[in-house]
Amino acid sequence: MYTLLIFLMYGKSLTVYFVQDDFYFLSFAILPSLKSILALFTPQPDVVWFRPISSQLFFFIAHLLFGYKVVYFHVIVFFTHILAAYLVYVFVKNLTANNLIGYISGLIYGLHQIHTLSLSWLATYSFVLGPLLLLLTFHEYQRKKYVHALLCFTLGILSLEVIILTPLILISYQLLVGRRLIIKTIYPYLLIIFVFILVRMILFPTHVNTYQYAVTFDFGINVLKFYLLRIIGIPLLFPPLSTGIKVIIVAGAGVICIGGFLGLVFAFKHNYIERRTVVFLLLSCAVLLLPFLGLPQHVAPYYESFALIFWAVLSSIGIYFFTSFFGKKYMQAFLMVFLMIYMILQIIGSQWTYATHWIFRRAVLAEKLIKEKQFSQRIGSEEFFSLGADAIFKVYK
């Protein structure tokens, strides 16, 4: 079911062409020999981030298998996302011992509109693969497969830096849910983090100095508001929408948020769920969002893909227990109403993003210019950025 709904929801993303940073990563895919594959794992001084698994290696493998057939790149991204949604379901089922809450959680995560960009822009694959590897780490850790969990963590940290925060999630899980801290299982994570920081910040430091990625926690209320509005279902570029659509979005988001909150209160009152579990989910959500609040010059909805895992669980728990308040006879009907409201909000948000976000306009422009072989463009123009600046010449030598 997840597979069908996700393909229906984001089908437009399958045909979005390479654009901007995609061409930079494609330049790594064209290696003279397999021996030079190690170059994919060498930190580049002219790049802010070091994400070889989700960037260079992803483009290398996809290009090796499919050439420049962009649809197959997107298929890989889609199935990564589908697997992540499924693992949300497994995580919640194990956490709450409730199959239905798990299913709703996977649905809320998998269909949320913040994924519109990360499923469309291949260069942001790290925000699709990263959550999957975080969930795999946690899943294997829950099963006490500590070596497997550590391997997933290592792959995760090489896909997106925010995975560094995983030990905090594991410690809070042990203390709040398990009520027992097994500190020796955390030491290997700290060692890997130390090696990662040593390699990236000491041995191969970045030489890029850009204000957009300057980390500061003097972010102000606007940055926090941006992320809170996105996670509850208010789309990007909300003001230009018609009044009628605005009313639908605000009313729908309000119903889901209020219903979810009342459901949690109801669950607490009747001891259906432990407060420790809710604190764990809230803390994990906050921890995984906090690093991105420190980038006030570079905000993006897909930055919430990690925090959304735990927000989806909280929402599902709240909605489930709110609808159960009406008794078994009406619970299913009310649950379907909530899910329909949620899906309508996400469809509106995703379609609006497709229609208004600049990445889709630039992807169309990039495809047109490549077909016409017009690679030389004025620096700073839309065409220049669409083609990934000078990276286009490394791809089409």
Outline the structure in words:
With 397 residues, the protein is mainly α. The protein has one domain. Helices cover 66% and strands 0% of the residues. The longest helix has 29 residues, at 328-356. The model has no long low-confidence stretch (mean pLDDT 89).
Structural class by helix and strand composition: mainly alpha
Count of β-strands: 0
Low-confidence stretches: none
Assembly category: single chain
Number of domains: 1
Report the radius of gyration as a whole number of Å: 22 Å
Range of helix content: 55-70%
Order of SSEs, N→C? HHHHHHHHHHHHHHHHHH
What's the end-to-end separation, in Å?
Answer: 43 Å
List descriptors.
397 residues; mainly alpha
What is the fold's blueprint, element by element?
Layout: H1 2-10, H2 21-29, H3 53-66, H4 70-96, H5 99-110, H6 115-118, H7 126-142, H8 146-157, H9 166-178, H10 187-203, H11 220-232, H12 243-269, H13 275-293, H14 307-324, H15 328-356, H16 358-371, H17 382-386, H18 391-395
Helix pairs in contact: 1-4, 2-3, 3-4, 4-5, 4-7, 5-14, 7-8, 8-10, 9-13, 12-14, 12-15, 13-14, 14-15
